Amino acid sequence: MTLGATSQDPNTSAGPVTEKAARSRRRIPGWLMGALWVAVVMVLLSTTSFLTGLPQLTSSSTIESAARFALPILLAALGGLWAERAGVINIGLEGMMIFGTWGAAFAGYYWGPWAGLLAAALFGAVGGLLHAVATVTFGVNHIVSGVAINLLGLGVTKYLSSLIFYPLSGNPRESPPVPKFDTYSAQPLAGWLGELEAMQRVGISDVAGILRGLVIGVSPLAMIGILLVPVSYLVLWRSRFGLRLRSCGENPKAAESLGVNVYLYKYSAVIMSGALAGIGGAALVLNPGQPGYSENQVNGRGYIGLAAMIFGNWRPGGLLGGSALFGYADGLRLRQGETTVHALLYGAALLVLVLAVVHLVRGRWTNGATALGGAVALYAVYWFTDGIPRELLAYAPHLVTLVVLAVAAQKLRGPAANGLQYSRETGGRRKRGGKEPGASVGAPGSGAAPPPDRRSEPGGEQPPGAGGAAPPTGG
Fold it and tell me: Where are the alpha helices (DSSP H) in 86-219?
C-alpha cells in the first residue's frame, strides 16, 4: 500500500502544487506592486535629498521638468508597445517622432495646437505605414526597415523645412514660433502642497514637492499621454481586439488557424505605433519650453522610449515607470546638474544596498554578494568624485538607459514571435530577416527528407492555440 501511495501519477500531484505556486506568485496585484514601488522611490529620493543636502532632488520645479521630459518618451514607449505586442520590432520610433515634430509645427503654425496634434499623429502614422509595408508585406528585416525610417525622417523633414519654413523663419533648420497648449494647475491643492514644500520638513516637504510638481503646469497633451496608458492596457489586455493582436506577437500561425487576419492586425498595430510616436514628437513642439520645430530636437528620445518599453517588460505600467526614470534623469540636469546628477549615484548605492539585503535574507548569496559589491562601487565613485563633468550632462538620460537595461535585461521576456516574419503563403513563421529556415530541406525534387516535427514529442514545444485552445489571454 505504501508503494502504491508513493507511485501516483505525477500529473495528479503536480497540478495542485503548480496551482498553489502560481497563486503565491500572483498574491500581490499589479496595481499594488506599482504603488509599493512609488512609495519606495519617494522614500529613496527623500533620504538621498536629506543625506546629500540637495533639496533640488525633490523640488516641485525639478519634478515638473521631469514630467515634461518624460512625456515624449512615454508616448514613444507606448508606440513601441503596440508594434512589438503584434510581433513587429519598431526601431523606427525615432524617425516617426521626427515626422511628428514637423507635422505639429506645420499645422500648429497655421491652424493652432489641436490641428498640430492631429497632423503629428497623421505624419507619424504614415511612417508606421511605411514600416508595416516593408516588414509585414515584403518581409524586410525589422531593424533594417526601422533604421531606414529614421534616415528617411531626417532627410524628408530637412527638405520640407528648407522648402516651407525657410521663407517664414529665415532659417532652414527651424520653424517660426508655434502656438502652444495652455497649462493648468490643480488649485487649491497645488497651493497647499507649495506651503508644505516651503516648510522644508524632512519627508513631508519632499513628498509635497514631488506631488506638487505633478499637478502644476499640466497641459492637455500631458493629460492625453497619461490617459493613453490605461487605455492601452484596457485595449490590449481586456478586449477581444487586443487578445487577437497579442496572439499575432506570440504565435501568428496559431492565430491564423483560428481565423485571425494576422496581416491586418500587424498593420493596425504598427500604424497605431507610428501615430503614438508622432504625438510624442508633438509634445516637443506644442508644449511650453520650445519655440517650435528645430532640427535634431528629438535627440534620441525614440530610442530611449524603446528602452523604457523594454525596461517595463512590454507592459503599460512598467513603461510608465521607465519613462518617469529617464525623464527624471533628463530634467535633473537642468537643476545644478553637476551636483544633482552626481547625487543620483548616492541614491543608486542606497537602492542597490537594499536589494543586496533582500537577496541575502532570501538566501540568494551570489546575487546578494554581487549587489553588495555594486553598492560599494557606486558609493566609492560618489565619494571620490566631486561632480559629473558638464560634458556628460547632456548624455545623462542615455547613460541611465544603458545602466538600467544592463541590470534589468536578465529578467525580461518579450513576445515570443517578436521580430519573426510571418508568411501566409508558407503557412508559418520565418526567421528574423525574412529567410525561410531550412528552405531547401524537404523541397520538392530535392531528395531530402523534411525535419521531424518535435511538437508531437514529449516535452516538445506547443504553440498557443494548439489543440483547439484559444490564444493566450493573460495580461
Answer: 93-111, 113-132, 142-160, 166-169, 189-198, 204-215
